[in-house]
Design brief:
It contains seven helices and eleven strands. It is α+β, with helices and mostly antiparallel strands.
Length: 255
Amino acid sequence: MSEFERAFAFQDRIEERTAERLEPTPYGPVLVHTRLNRVHDLNFLRALEPGDASAEELAAEANRVQGAAGIGHRRVNIRSEEQRERLEPQFVRLGWEPQRFVLMVQRREPDGPADHEVREVDEPTLRPLWAEAIRLEPHGQDEPLVQQILEHRRDVGQAIPTRLFAGEADGRLVAHTELYSEDGIGQVENVFTLPDYRGRGLAGSLVLHAVAESQAAGNDLTFLVADADDWPQRLYERLGFETAGRYARFLKPRL
């Protein structure tokens, strides 16, 4: 398997362990979690084999399964860059939002050392910062969704070996990241710094610490996922990460 395939298989395991069930479709499974029904990362069509299907056909399957499960939003995940290029204009015409990502693998030494010390913390200690970070997102005014995302993160920590890291400033936790680790693979996830503390190197220090811990655990592959249309991928490049592949998902918010 390629690095890209190994990383996706790793993510698939986490998603399947935290979902309630998988519903089959001709294009791939729909992951369903009716209790955490607002969490996009637990409720979506994983279109592994879209073939020549149109966006309308994929949307119809998402509507059929997610609608029956009482899911308010619709989401379709596409793993092939070629399929993304074909399907994105179609989904846009349907009024769905395209979201593009790069999967980046740590392959070389960083451009420089970490600037800050990093603390390892437990979930109750980090939870208030998690909540503060989520409430800063565009969807952060939806308090039921905030609470469901927090519960999902707790569930992930129970589904796969997880370590939580935080950075401090002014006597408080202001930045965080997570490391998921299993079977020779580590994923750095949820890298965040409060707005007033950005630009100080906290995020870079957290990522480098997580990478070092991943390597110390014996992982031969450490990866993360970044928004393909945002600046953090440039930071990750300076930290030794290189793009291994690209993928996309398409979202229709709550109906």
